[in-house]
């Protein structure tokens, strides 16, 4: 298990390097000049050249890339913001708690509502409740997030004047963005849970438990739900990672000062260090969450440890066999 964790941590290195390379590539082909965005279109050419040299933008793109990677590896430096002159890492850490709060609360609400709905819908398959749940999830999943956000603002902020439409200074300001993000989480978890429970509930061991005379609630809670959790937990991990990196539009619409709003502002201002820093941090968090989900897998289903151990043993045996074959060939 320890080797597996170490291997997954090492796999995060090429992921981050690849993310940096992709952002640098799009930066090079975009054709935008952040220096002219900073100084204005009427700036003198001498000032533009001096600022470009100061920011290191006069060097080839591959030189900029390797310098950025070296500073990130050796110093943990994500660069300096073009607009504020402050370290990007500090600015992201100031905004990250807002994004984390929005993601965790939304996923918690989605799990509390979505998982029970999916379980009950699967247990009561093809009943009016199941049909209603399926209709609700299909209907709500067809709503784009930004459109749902605008509908919520029009209804609760403009028409009814119950909640603020922008800003999270007051606790009431969190209601609309959390509801908007939670609806997508509820629909996704409900459908995943229902499909997983339906797959498990028709397995032979469930029929055996019923044949032994166990009552249906015990069969569902002890045998069905526990064996249905792995796909659900995987979905929760993906949702948490997606909410951390995918709330850009929601944060911008509702004025949540999180990483998403910071990244959108950086894109509009051609603030490439801020864009790159935001993407790197979010990619790292998504990879870390995926690793934590895999570790939780083992807690729920210890058979995965045995599978992983057998895989390692098989690879060792294969390498040993090849080594012996090479030795035999050399002796001949």
Please tell me about this protein's structure.
By secondary structure, the protein is mainly α. It has 2 domains: 2-75, no CATH class; 92-313, MetI-like fold (Orthogonal Bundle). It has helices at 2-29, 34-39, 45-55, 61-75, 88-123, 128-141, 145-159, 175-201, 204-211, 216-246, 248-254, 259-268, 272-300, 303-331.
Question: How are the SSEs placed, and which strands pair?
Answer:
Layout: H1 2-29, H2 34-39, H3 45-55, H4 61-75, H5 88-123, H6 128-141, H7 145-159, H8 175-201, H9 204-211, H10 216-246, H11 248-254, H12 259-268, H13 272-300, H14 303-331
Helix pairs in contact: 1-4, 1-13, 5-6, 5-8, 5-10, 6-8, 7-8, 7-11, 8-10, 9-10, 10-13, 11-12, 12-13
Tell me the structural class: mainly alpha
| CATH architecture descriptor text of the largest domain | Orthogonal Bundle
Helix content: over 70%
Termini separation comes to 40 Å
CATH class of the largest domain: Mainly Alpha
How many helices in DSSP terms? 14
Q: Beta-strand percentage?
A: under 5%
Instruction: State the total count of DSSP E strands.
Output: 0
Shape: flat
CATH H-level superfamily of the largest domain: MetI-like
Number of domains: 2
Radius of gyration from CA coordinates: 26 Å
Mean pLDDT: 79
Main beta-sheet strand count, sense and barrel state: none
> Which topology of the largest domain does CATH recognise?
MetI-like fold
- The H/E string reads HHHHHHHHHHHHHH
Which residues form runs of ≥5 with pLDDT under 50? none
């Amino acid at each position: 298990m320890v080797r597996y964790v170490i291997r997954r941590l090492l796999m995060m290195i090429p992921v981050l390097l690849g993310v940096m390379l992709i952002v640098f590539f799009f930066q090079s082909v975009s054709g935008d000049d952040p220096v002219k965005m900073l100084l204005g279109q009427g700036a003198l050419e001498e000032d533009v050249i001096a600022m470009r040299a100061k920011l290191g933008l006069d060097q080839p793109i591959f030189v900029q890339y390797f310098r950025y990677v070296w500073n990130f590896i050796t110093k943990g430096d994500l660069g300096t913001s073009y607009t504020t002159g402050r370290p990007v890492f500090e600015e992201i850490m100031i905004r990250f708690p807002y994004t984390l709060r929005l993601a965790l609360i939304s996923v918690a609400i989605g799990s509390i509502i979505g998982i029970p709905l999916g379980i009950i819908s699967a247990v009561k398959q093809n009943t009016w409740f199941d049909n209603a749940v399926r209709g609700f999830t299909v209907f709500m999943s067809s709503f784009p997030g930004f459109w749902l956000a605008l509908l919520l603002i029009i209804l609760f902020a403009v028409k009814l004047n119950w909640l603020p439409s922008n800003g999270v200074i007051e606790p009431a300001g969190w209601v609309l963005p959390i509801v908007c993000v939670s609806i997508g989480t509820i629909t996704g978890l409900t459908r995943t849970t229902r499909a997983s429970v339906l797959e498990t509930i028709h397995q032979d061991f469930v029929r055996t438990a019923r044949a032994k005379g166990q009552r249906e609630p015990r069969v569902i809670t002890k045998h069905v739900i526990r064996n249905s959790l792995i796909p659900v937990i995987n979905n929760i991990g993906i949702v948490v990672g997606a909410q951390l990196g995918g709330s850009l539009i929601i944060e911008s619409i509702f004025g949540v000062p999180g990483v998403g709003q910071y990244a959108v502002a950086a894109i509009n201002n051609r603030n490439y260090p801020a864009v790159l820093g935001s993407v790197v941090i979010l990619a790292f968090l998504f990879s870390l969450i995926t690793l934590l989900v895999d570790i939780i897998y083992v807690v729920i289903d210890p058979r995965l440890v045995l599978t992983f151990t057998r895989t390692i043993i098989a690879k060792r045996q294969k390498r040993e066999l090849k080594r012996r074959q090479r030795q035999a060939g050399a002796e001949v």
